[in-house]
Specification:
mainly alpha, de novo design (two linked rop proteins), 77% helix, globular
């Protein structure tokens, strides 16, 4: 578990930090072209200038910086051998559940309202999903009750990568379908 939190949290933290720096540059100079603005579809600049990029009245990357810092800290704590209390695991699960719900709202908004994708945001999407999934498995395995639940978790744990693969492939299919007209113009 500690490796998942350290790696995914670290990658998410870097992506959120870069997004915040890019957003600051864009605020300083409205003509600034972010490094992640590659083409009309992969365009951080287009996404950053929407209301969705400030869902709570401030830039979303601030949420990422705080959240991923917590995740990295939890990973380091677990790597050091700490045993965390039940309430802490449930709190961490609630945080990752909120994060995965938020990124799926952002995915919907990016695909169907904004019509552009932010590569750094997609990195955040990619790392948030396993953080939620593995936290869910851990919480249910160690902190839920009932033999039926234990059996379900054992089964889900046996196929943990299948769940992630299907999740990622579903998102990739949505992206491919939404922007298919563009993709076929750039493919050889």
């Amino acid at each position: 578990m500690s490796t998942v939190y350290l790696v995914a949290g670290g990658i998410g933290l870097v992506a959120a930090f870069v997004l915040l720096l890019e957003r600051i540059e864009l605020l300083k100079d409205p003509n600034y072209v972010p490094s992640c603005s590659i083409n009309p579809i992969l365009s951080c600049g287009s996404v950053m200038q929407t209301s969705q990029a400030e869902a709570f009245g401030f830039p979303n990357p601030i949420i990422g910086i705080v959240g991923f810092t917590i995740v990295v800290t939890v990973g380091a704590t677990l790597a050091a051998g700490a045993e965390l209390a039940r309430w802490f695991w449930w709190s961490l699960w609630a945080g990752t559940a909120a994060a995965v719900a938020f990124i799926h709202w952002l995915i919907f908004e990016s695909l169907y309202r904004i019509g552009a994708l932010c590569p750094y945001c997609m990195v955040v999407w990619v790392v948030t999903i396993p953080l939620f999934w593995y936290t869910t498995l851990h919480v249910v395995r160690h902190h839920a009750f009932g033999e039926g639940t234990a059996r379900l978790v054992r089964h889900a744990s046996d196929y943990h990568t299948v769940v992630l693969t299907v999740w990622y492939l579903s998102l990739a299919a949505l992206i491919a379908k939404r922007f298919w007209d563009y993709w076929i113009t750039v493919l050889p």
